[in-house]
C-alpha cells in the first residue's frame, strides 16, 4: 500500500454545546492535551492533533480529516473530484500554522459528510505518550442510511479497501490496521463513534478506571470485537458523542480474506470474542444512532 493516496486518519472535528466543558472532559478525563487557544487537542503520538471542538447549537459531527501521502496526492484528488462530480468544498490550499500547516482540501461525501485531506502537516514530539492516555485517533465509525453508497465512495474516490462486512457494518482500511473507517446502517449520515488507540491492554484498563472514577461509566465493554479483533471499551462524552478506548487491532495486508455477513453471523460468542462484554447499554445504543451532520458554512 506504499502508493496509496490516503495513508491514515488524522483527526475528527466535533460540534459541541459547551466548548469549555468539552475541553475539560477531553483534557482532564479522556487524556488529550489542548494546543494553546486553538480548538485542537493532541494525543500522545506524533500527529499534530486528534480532535477539534467547535461551538454549535446542536452537537454533531463537523468533519473528519484524513492524511494524504503528499501535496500531489491532494491535488490529484481535487482533479478527480472535478472529473467525477464529487463536490469540492475547498480546493488544494495552504493550511494555517495553528492547524499544523501543510496542504489540504475538503470534499463532500454522500449524505453531506465533509471529508478533509491534508499532507505535509507538522509532526509533534511524542513526549505526551503515557500508558493510560490515548496515542492517536485510530478509527471512526459513521452511520449512513445507504451503507453501500458511502462505503463505495470511500473505496472508489479515496482508495480504501473492504476488510469485512457484518449484517450492520462494513469495515474499510487504508493501511495495515484492519479498519480506519467503518460504515454502519443508520437513519442519517453522522457519527456512530470515534476510537482512540491506547498503548496496550493495561493502559486501556487504567484509562477505563480514570473515566469511571470521574463519573463516566463503561457503556459497553470491556470486550474483544469480532471484526478487527481489537479490545474495546465505550463511553459517552458530555454532548452525547460516543468515544472508544481500543487496543490490539489486527494488522492485515492484501492477502487478508474478506469475511461476509454470514461468516460473522455464525462467529462464536458474538459480539465479544471473550463472551465477557455485556450488551451495549440503552444509552449508548441511542447515542450511537447519532444526529445528522449539521450543515455549516465553513469548509
Low-confidence stretches: none
Order of helices and strands: EHEEEEHEEEEHEEEEHEEEHH
Shape: globular
The percent range for helix content is 10-25%
What gyration radius follows from the Cα positions, in whole Å? Answer: 18 Å
| Tally of separate helices | 6
Mean pLDDT across every amino acid position: 94
- The tally of beta strands, per DSSP, is 16
Within the largest sheet, what's the order of strands? Answer: 2-3-4-1-5-8-7-6
Oligomer: single chain
Q: What composes the largest sheet?
A: 8 strands, mixed
How much of the sequence lies in strands comes to 25-35%
Description:
This protein is an alpha+beta fold. Helix content is 21%, strand content 33%. It is built from six helices and 16 strands. It has helices at 19-29, 71-84, 147-158, 201-213, 261-265, 282-289, and strands spanning 6-16, 33-34, 40-42, 51-55, 60-68, 88-94, 103-108, 114-119, 136-144, 161-165, 169-173, 181-185, 190-197, 220-224, 231-236, 242-247. The strands form two sheets. The protein has an eight-stranded mixed beta sheet. An eight-stranded mixed beta sheet has the order 10-11-12-9-13-16-15-14, sandwiched between helices. Strand 10 and strand 11 form a beta hairpin. The longest helix is centred in the first third of the chain and has 14 residues, at 71-84. The protein is globular and about 50 Å long. The two termini are 29 Å apart. The model has no long low-confidence stretch (mean pLDDT 94).
